[in-house]
Amino acid sequence: MNKIEHIGIAVSDFNAACSLYEKLLNTGVYKVEDVESESVKTAFLQSGPNKIELLEATNDDSPIAKFIAKKGEGVHHIAFEVEDIVAEMERLKNEGFVLLSDKPKLGADNKLVCFVHPKSAGGVLVELVQGIG
Ligand code: ZN
Predict the structure, then answer these.
(1) What tens digit of pLDDT does each residue of 71-84 get?
(2) Cα separation of 16 and 20, whole Å?
């Protein structure tokens, strides 16, 4: 894995969270995107070399709605950039990690993504991301 690509934060009030993180990081949201496959609305902020992704549920079945119901707002996942997501998924599967999908999915920010189940990753939801241009 190359580096942390972004940190995902679950929020319950999208506009309030955008304002809060804009103030905190002293920079504006540069992109807002709906990811229908995951039932989330996302906002991205850049802080130096680091990226923060805010995630709000767009319906009650969204993984973000379930996360907030259980744990409240806060850090939701850590995303690592990989060069070859299929090879990395295969490697992790062989190491005994549980992946949440068999194939990469199209995620926010024009990336192929796959999540690793937190139960197999020390309680942390890990996202693999590969840019597709
Ligand atoms: Zn993410």
Answers:
(1) 999 999 999 999 99
(2) 6
91-117 pLDDT, tens digit per residue, is 999 999 999 999 999 888 889 999 999
| C-alpha 95 – ligand 1 centre gap (Å) | 22
58 CA distance to ligand 1 middle (Å): 16
Provide the 10 A C-beta neighbour count for residue 129: 22
The answer to pTM > 0.90 is: yes
Sheet containing strand 111-116, strands side by side: 31-35, 40-47, 50-57, 3-10, 74-81, 126-131, 111-116, 105-107
CA of 117 to the centre of ligand 1 (A): 14
Compute the distance from residue 128 Cα to the ligand 1 centre, in Å. 8
7 CA to middle of ligand 1, Å?
Answer: 7
